[in-house]
Amino acid sequence: MPTITPYSGTVTPLARVFRPLAIGIAGVTLMTISAKVQIPFWPVPMTLHTMAVMAFALLLGPRMAVAIFAVYFAAGAAGLPVFAGSPARGLGLTYIAGPTGGYLVGYLLASGVTGWLAVGRGWLGQTFAMLTGLGVVYGFGLIWLSAFVPSEQLMAVGVLPFLAGDLAKIAVVGLAAQGMARLRGLK
Fold first, then answer.
1. Angle formed at CA 35 by CA 32 and CA 39, multiple of 5 degrees
2. How do residues 46-92 score in pLDDT, each as one tens digit?
3. Is residue 127's pLDDT more than 50?
4. What average pLDDT does the chain have?
5. Total domains present in the chain
6. Nearest to 105, CA basis, from 119, 90, 93
7. Is 171 part of a structural domain of the chain?
């Protein structure tokens, strides 16, 4: 009878490849689901994107968070119906060229900025990182949205309807991250 040896704690080369790949696939799937859960607004729907972007940045770090959103963005650009309101509001580059394009670019950049600023920080630093990331999303979103909405209406259409919800999503992510940190400390 063969002897079974206990797990030694070492990571095999295959696991080093498979684990990030599995996390990435799960992340892109969750990002797609977060886009599909939405409250209709015009011209940009309210989704759970902010929550997903901030959670990935805090929990997985900047590299993995950017990788997840980059693959998600590429899948959408290639025509897969991963974005909010797709396929009804368009697919691929046509969708990205619409009013939400700047927000999508903002999420990609916010993934890295938030993750980078949050690394090794406590709740206050993580909150600052997420608020900075939200500023990046709104900044790029508003710049792009200005091609579709008169400048005097930008804040009313592109920020104010979403701000309270986005701040609530950031609070939920921050509380969840702190809860997870406490659980890890109990090991």
1. 155
2. 789 999 999 999 999 999 999 999 999 999 999 999 998 888 888 99
3. yes
4. 90
5. 1
6. 93
7. yes
